[in-house]
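Tutorial, part two.
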Amino acid sequence: MVKVGTSAEIIAKKFWHRGDRANARDLFDLCAVADAQPDQIAKASPFMVKHGYACLTALAKRAPVVKREFEAIGVIKRGTFKERMRQAESIIGPLLPQSLEDRYWRSGKHLNI
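Running the prediction step on this input gives:
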């Protein structure tokens, strides 16, 4: 028998262990789970705080590369990179301490997307 993690466990592990090195697939997975199982995002949210700011900043800073990688994901209902970045910002932003959330928005990095 193969034990399979829940969506919450998968998202939590991605963020906890490598959220500061997030990639296009991580963005896709976060948004796919948010669309299909929003309750799982709520369960994973405590684990997103550790690297939440670094995740958003890294994705925004590398937007041209991440966008190409995101568009290469072979899924029909993927949404656009910009839509999914906004969704990720709306999920992760409120979890961050106010000072980090403010810092992210003031940095202007999100404007490059």
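Residues 7-112 form one domain. In part three we will examine how such features are distributed along the chain.
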